[in-house]
Amino acid sequence: MLPAESREPLTSAMQMLRALWAYRDFVLTSVTREFQGRYQGSLLGAFWAVIQPLAMIVIYTLIFAQIMRPRLGGHEDIPFAFSIYLCSGVITWGLFAEMLGRLNTVFIDNGNLLKKASFPRTCLPAIVTLSSLLNFAIILVLFLVFLAIIGYFPGWALLALLAVLVLQVLFTLGLGIVLGTLNVFFRDVGQFTQVVLQFWFWLTPIVYTASIVPDRVREMLKYNPMMSVIEAYQGIFLEHRNPDWSSLLPLAVTTLILLLLATMLFRRRVGEIVDEL
Q1: What is the pTM assigned to this prediction?
Q2: What is the pLDDT tens value at each position of the chain, 277 positions in all?
Q3: Is 2 among the domain residues?
Q4: Does residue 39 lie within any of the structural domains?
Q5: 3 in any annotated domain
Q6: Out of 17, 23, 68, 214, which could bridge 120 as a Cys pair, Cβ 3.0 to 4.6 Å?
Q7: How far apart (Å, rounded) are the C-alpha atoms in residues 239 and 261?
């Protein structure tokens, strides 16, 4: 039997999951209201959710594939190879950056709700996660339509995307809750995170390939937890192959640690968070 100290994070996690399930209607309603409110008052309404990512895909395709004409070694026969490579990384990073950025300030932005004793506080990260996934789903569908049009749909390899996506979301959720909790007490955390995200993006092979950087830098990039995720997406969409699951193992371990830390930190500091806000 596990000692009490080891069981506490697991017990807390189960309690949070039960609370989320009990308030699932509230979470889904909040996500829907947020999505509708984002485009309320505009002439095209929710159609902007399609126009914006579609414009992104078109721009990246035209600029990087046609004007700049970069080449990926060994992929010369693939239509729009670099556009596929680039978009795979950009949409993946977009989900990560949106989730982390919003989780970073989720408790500060919803201070009035947190002060209500009956409000299920664990719903806030869930609302951010589902809202970000909704935006990601729209972009992903458009990207898949583009791949189908050019005759390069990933096929069965797309099933592996679900496992990678779950791992990515859980990693971002754990890291985001930790940073969001710390940001309540140390407001510099939020500003620092935004600066780090800018450097983090350019230290991840998205707009360039890892093969073009010096060997010493390439070795350092292996410690970037997002690199294995980005490479997994790029492998699925560009090469139609399953990810190297062993390369994702360190991220899985890191994710588990972050989730346990986030659970303990939030449960122990939730009262202080309310007082601080």
Answers
A1: 0.87
A2: 445 555 555 665 666 667 677 777 877 888 888 777 776 665 555 566 667 667 776 777 677 665 555 566 666 677 778 888 888 998 899 899 999 999 999 888 877 777 765 667 778 898 999 999 988 998 898 889 889 998 899 988 899 999 999 999 999 999 999 999 999 888 888 889 999 999 999 899 888 888 888 888 888 888 899 999 999 999 999 989 999 999 999 999 999 999 999 988 888 877 777 766 6
A3: no
A4: no
A5: no
A6: 23
A7: 36
Instruction: Specify the number of domains making up the chain.
Output: 1
Neighbours of 11 (CB within 10 A): 13
Q: Which region, left, alpha or beta, applies to residue 240 given φ > 0 means left and ψ of -120 to 50 means alpha?
A: left
> What sign does the dihedral 98-101-104-108 (CA atoms) show?
negative
Q: Is residue 225 part of a domain?
A: yes
Calpha distance 108→97 (Å, rounded): 18
Which of 196, 180, 23 minimizes the C-alpha distance to 109? 180
